[in-house]
């Protein structure tokens, strides 16, 4: 195992894949997870019970769990039904979301609930929310319209392209332990994941942005293997680099990690949502771009956890 402290920023499937790959490689893993999610089944729970979102934290829990397979399979189980159904019904809900919601409703605060969930499912890594209060998103588009809520941004319920993302409240309270983890980190990795609905909500949280600015850690941004039409249509590597710099006010990352294996076709059912990820447009930037075969060939809109972990280890 590598004797370095790593901090992962993001949430969702992308961060979960990264964590699955690195959990056997690093002694000291810390995850700072977006709490801007308000879509799908987790969003339904958030609205109905007026609690922080469960989904992205749960994804990280599942990836990091050292419990037996029966328990992790239980965490993943989703009751048959529509994920985007009414807020007050069971169909479409994931058991892990319901369990975490129950813990939050009985705990003193979000961090207490995370601690209890970690105990139940044998998670050794530190998991922190990106804010201690509920956060919502809005985005300004190229047409001048304002899109409100993470779900509307994620589902492409707008015209034009996203030009600017904002969080509300603008400067939420952040756990001191999360900020300390960034301060003490040897390695910081952001992504993969949806740029505007998962990664940037963490990066533009002012207290986190400040810590990234002063951090001396090796800082890596993992570019998605597939572009999401709604969020990053036809984005090149330079578009990712520029968007992060624009939103943070500086470039936090010294290295961008990019997949170069595009031999596998995107499954037909996802062709209306995703296109082959960026392979070009890295010229003239003051960052290092590292290319490699990172794709999960069985499901080529995502990274392979093992390939991604090996690539991170080579960089550091």
Task: Give the amount of beta strand, in percent.
Answer: 15-25%
Coarse structural class: alpha/beta
**Number of strand segments:** 12
Could you give a short account of the major beta sheet?
Answer: 7 strands, parallel
Helix percent band: 25-40%
Q: What is the CA-based Rg, rounded?
A: 18 Å
Write the element-wise H/E pattern from the N-terminal end onward. EHEHHHHHEEEHEHEHHEEHEEEH
Spatial sequence of strands, sheet with the most strands: 3-2-1-7-8-10-12
Shape from CA axes? globular
Low-confidence stretches: none
**Mean model confidence by pLDDT:** 94
State the separation between the terminal residues, measured CA to CA.
Answer: 13 Å
Tally the helices. 12
Notes on the protein architecture:
With 316 residues, the protein is α/β, with parallel strands linked by helices. The chain has a domain at 37-129. Helix content is 37%, strand content 20%. It is built from twelve helices and twelve strands. It has helices spanning 12-22, 40-49, 55-64, 69-76, 95-106, 110-120, 150-154, 176-184, 195-203, 206-214, 237-248, 305-315, and strands at 2-10, 26-33, 126-129, 136-141, 146-148, 162-168, 187-190, 218-222, 226-228, 255-259, 274-276, 288-292. The protein has a seven-stranded parallel β-sheet with strand order 3-2-1-7-8-10-12, with helices on both faces. Helix 2 (40-49) packs parallel to helix 5 (95-106). The longest helix has 12 residues, at 95-106.
